[in-house]
Amino acid sequence: MKKVLVFSMLSFTAFSGFSQSIDKIINAKEVAAIENVLASDSLRGRATFTDDIEKASNFIENKFQKIGLQPFPGAKNFRQEFFMNQSTNTVANITIDGAVIPDSLVGIISFQPKVDLTEKDNVKIIKLSAGDNIRQKIGAILKSKENLLVLVDPSFERYRSILRHLGKESMTPETNTIVFLFGVDNVKTFNIHLENTIVKKPLNNVVGILPGKTLPDEYVIFSAHYDHLGVGQPVNGDSIYNGANDDASGVTAVLSLAKYFKKANNNARTIIFATFTAEEIGEFGSQYFSKQFDPAKVVAMFNIEMIGTESKWGKNSAYITGYDKTDMGKILERNLTGSAFKFYPDPYTEQHLFYRSDNASLAKLGVPAHTISTSKMDNEPNYHKVSDEISTLDMDNMAEIIKAIALSSTTIVDGKDTPTRVDTSKLN
């Protein structure tokens, strides 16, 4: 494999000589070996609450064990377990202006065993209109504490399967009910009768650590989410959302970085390697993780999300979300001086990516927590599709990105650089 990272000898004195062997640890062959497991059809898309994500967890745990990581302090193993409430709608009788609405045109978020609502009750009717920023609008809808009837414009038809399954899980019982309706333009009268089965179910992040040699109470986090969308409606005969890029590629990076830093065995600060569950349904895994320690002890978080395809700038490049919120990006760029690799600020700021991945849970607490990605979010052809398969990834370029993350983070891991904190008063 052609080496595209060339560093001056002064760049990484703490790893003197070791960085020269990085190609033996992080390379396309090793990257592909991990991807071929996590994104295989046998794991059926790693959906939350399935046996398939359990298999993925076991694979990551075994990797952590083989690498030689330690469990999170106080944990008996690499699993960081928590519980969520899962709601399954068993009865949905909905009439709009006297017409019965078929189940296929309804999406329900409700954690009450029984719901009966009419136009005489406290229900707010809102619209997802053509041209709306659906992500922003859905974000506001999910934060609402009111009962909502949401009329979805036909232009959002491709989101139907996602909206119909959105919000089936929560870490805390919700008191409001949200009903999405497809193909309904206007509502005068309505009658909503729902019956739901609420079950408390276990989930787990997979977390391992390398204790720091001289600064053990200061943490650097490398993370990614290992869940994806599972199995859905067939598209051209394929029903498995493999999630090779989203986010098996990020988990592959975390496992590769764990192996690299373990072999280096020279980290001043404690390194936490975390793979999160339940990102796709609301970032619940990272939310739980963020509450397990004092965020003031975390000096940096490298969240890695979708690095399997080339960025808009081509090979040997990636972007950092929330670049202007801390000086962490500048530190990484400085550490890559003289190399062929380039980090860029997030070019998709209108999509608010800084708040849409697992880094957000820590950033909201002031941690310099950023996501590193290459995904072309204005035109990523396989995003959240059954076509997000191993064959679409560039393993050589992935390996170079992971190496760049490893080498650019060295001065932070060594305790030489400490990024500025996120100003939480300016988060929006």
UniProtKB/TrEMBL annotation:
Source organism, top-level taxon: Bacteria
Any idea where the Peptidase M28 domain is?
205-406
- GO MF assignments: metalloexopeptidase activity
| Gene Ontology BP, a term | proteolysis
Instruction: Check the record and name the InterPro entries matching this protein.
Output: M28_fam, Peptidase_M28
Q: Which UniProt keywords apply?
A: Hydrolase
Pfam families, alphabetically? Answer: Peptidase_M28 (PF04389)
Entry's Gene3D superfamilies?
A: Zn peptidases (3.40.630.10)
- Check the record and name the PANTHER family matching this protein: METALLOPEPTIDASE M28 FAMILY MEMBER, PEPTIDASE M28 DOMAIN-CONTAINING PROTEIN
Spell out the protein name for this chain: M20/M25/M40 family metallo-hydrolase
